[in-house]
Amino acid sequence: MSKHLIEVEPIHETGEGAGRVMTLSTIAFTLMFAVWLMFSILGIPIQQELGDQRRAAVLDLRGGGSQRFDGGSPRASSPTASVDVA
Predict the structure, then answer these.
(1) Where are the beta strands (DSSP E) in the chain?
(2) Distance between the two ends of the chain, CA-based, in angstroms?
(3) Rounded-to-integer distance, Cα 27 and Cα 56, Å
(4) What are phi and psi of 85, to 5 degrees?
(5) Is 74 helix (H, G, I), strand (E, B) or coil?
(6) Are 41 and 52 within 8 A, CB to CB?
(7) Mean pLDDT of residues grouped by 10 in the chain (86 residues)?
């Protein structure tokens, strides 16, 4: 050892299994971070694909692809809806 280093005695004993806990925690964190990173990268194409499918399903339920989705407002979809101009 170098003469410039100071050795300090530990304050308390390390409990049994502390190394195992640290190792498993590190592995679990690494795996979860990898999954999170993969979903953040792949999430945009998945979201776009699911969004297109949802939009198509809504249009199919409403009876066609040329209608605009108005959020379910009965007044907006009514052919007799009128607007009073003051």
Answers:
(1) none
(2) 91
(3) 42
(4) -105, 120
(5) helix
(6) no
(7) 78 87 97 92 81 69 57 54 56
